[in-house]
Amino acid sequence: MSTEETSRFVRLRVELVLEVQDDGEVTKAALRRLAGDSEVPQAERAQAEAAVTEDTAEALAYLVDPFDLIREVPGVELQQASWSSERIDYDPDSPDWDLDEDDGLGDEDDEDGIG
Question: Would you tell me which of 51, 75, 93, 108 could form a disulfide with 58, CB atoms 3.0–4.6 Å apart?
């Protein structure tokens, strides 16, 4: 494909599996960030505080921000982002957790050579 025919838009998919070793610390960090976030309207603040207190996955979703991932990347501008988190059962030895298997890309599209 020539440069003129190539889209300037790239979809970057990232999937993370995190082991939460201290629910309380994650919750405290989310509450601290929420307290310092002046963009959250007061009407939504109580609801957000309840959500991050009741569910560590919600606290992580509040702490992990895709904008932070690309903020320092030169030459790109984030157009759209969505993310979510959920508690899962994880077995790293299970073939169900082979991340390369589900992405449809295969090793030939893995530009960094990892995978």
Answer: 51
pTM: 0.68
Of 3, 13, 8, 5, which is closest to residue 69 (Cα–Cα)? 13
56 part of a folded domain: yes
78 domain-assigned = yes
Specify if 114 maps to a domain: no
Structural tokens at position 111: 């530009």
- The 10s digit of each residue's pLDDT in 10-41 is 998 888 889 999 999 999 999 999 999 999 89
Domain carrying residue 26: 3-109
- With residue 89 as reference, give the H or E element that holds it: none
Nearest 5°: the CA angle 22, 97, 64 is: 40
